[in-house]
Amino acid sequence: MTLDLALRLCRVFGAASLLSFGGGNAIVPQLQLETVDTYGWLTAAQFADSFAIAQAAPGPSTLLVSLLGYDAAGLAGALLATAAMILPAGLLIYGMARLWQGASRMRWRAALERGMAPVSVGLVLASGVVVARSTDHSWTQYALTVLATVALSLTRVNPLIVVAASGLAAWAASA
């Protein structure tokens, strides 16, 4: 791995770590923009594959970053991307937690918390759109995306059942 690539990995994942309001999925659009469109470290299909693998495993947010770093620069890239993702936000959170505790009765704190909730929702929804654009290329795939979204949003069905049913439906449609 070159020094230039190492610095780019640190910039991409370090900056993303500071934008991850609402969890790791909130930064998926930014990660896709940087790793696919800006630097070309991955294709859109590779990004979608890494995202799918990460979602199927424990700790999906960090795993996605590790996979993207690995695709860009091997094991060293995976380690560097993971560290760059964890350290900036971790240090910021440590400092902010001390300030936040001191402001527990302040009106601006409650207002800020109410304002961050819709931003978090918007970031997560944007992530879904980015991943759908990378993976959905047929009417069957669009339909499965909509059906899975509705099933998971409006019912208490186990996500594993939705994943299995979608996989079987996609397989049946391709046969």
Helix content: over 70%
The counted number of beta strands is 0
**Are there runs of 5+ residues with pLDDT below 50, and where?**
none
Percent range for β-strand residues: under 5%
Radius of gyration: 18 Å
Largest sheet: none
Can you count the helices? 7
Give me the strand/helix succession.
Answer: HHHHHHH
Layout of helices and strands, plus pairs?
Elements: H1 3-17, H2 28-38, H3 44-55, H4 60-102, H5 107-135, H6 139-154, H7 159-174
Give a structural overview.
The chain has helices spanning about 5-15, 30-40, 45-55, 60-100, 105-135, 140-155, 160-175. It is built from seven helices and no strands. The N and C termini lie far apart (about 45 Å). It is mostly helical and about 180 residues long.
Features:
about 180 residues, mainly alpha, about 0% strand, 7 helices
Summarize the structure.
The protein has helices at about 5-15, 30-40, 45-55, 60-100, 105-135, 140-155, 160-175. With about 180 residues, it is mainly alpha-helical.
